[in-house]
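Q: Please design a sequence for this.
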C-alpha cells in the first residue's frame, strides 16, 4: 500500500501538483482465431501488490471484473455487427452505381 502512496506522491511532484492517472487494471479486446473475441485483463506490479495487500485473490478479482468484461465484449460485438451492415450497404451502393453505368 505504501508503494501506491509513494507512486501517487511522486506523480504529483512530476505533474506539478495535478492529480495523476494511475492505471491499475487494463482490459482489452483481442480477436483470436480460436475463440473469436476474447477479453484480457492486465495489471502492473503495483496492482499485484495492492491486491495482495487487500487480500483479494485472482478468483475474487475475476468475479469482480467479469461483468465489465461481458459488457466490453457485447460492445465489440455490436461494433462488428454494425460495421458488417455498413459494409453491405456500401457494396450495394457500389453495385447500384455499376449497374447504372452499364445500363
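A: Design:
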Amino acid at each position: 500500500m505504501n508503494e501506491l502512496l509513494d507512486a501517487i506522491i511522486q506523480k504529483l511532484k512530476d505533474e506539478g501538483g495535478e492529480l495523476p492517472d494511475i492505471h491499475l487494471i487494463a482490459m482489452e479486446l483481442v480477436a483470436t482465431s480460436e475463440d473469436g473475441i476474447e477479453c484480457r485483463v492486465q495489471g502492473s506490479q503495483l496492482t499485484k501488490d495492492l491486491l495482495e495487500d487487500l487480500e483479494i485473490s485472482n478468483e475474487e478479482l475475476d468475479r469482480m471484473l467479469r461483468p465489465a468484461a461481458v459488457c466490453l465484449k457485447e460492445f465489440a460485438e455490436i461494433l462488428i455487427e454494425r460495421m458488417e451492415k455498413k459494409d453491405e450497404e456500401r457494396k450495394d451502393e457500389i453495385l447500384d452505381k455499376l449497374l447504372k453505368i452499364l445500363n
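Q: Thanks. Anything notable?
A: Residues 28 and 65 are 12 Å apart (CA to CA). The mean pLDDT is 83.
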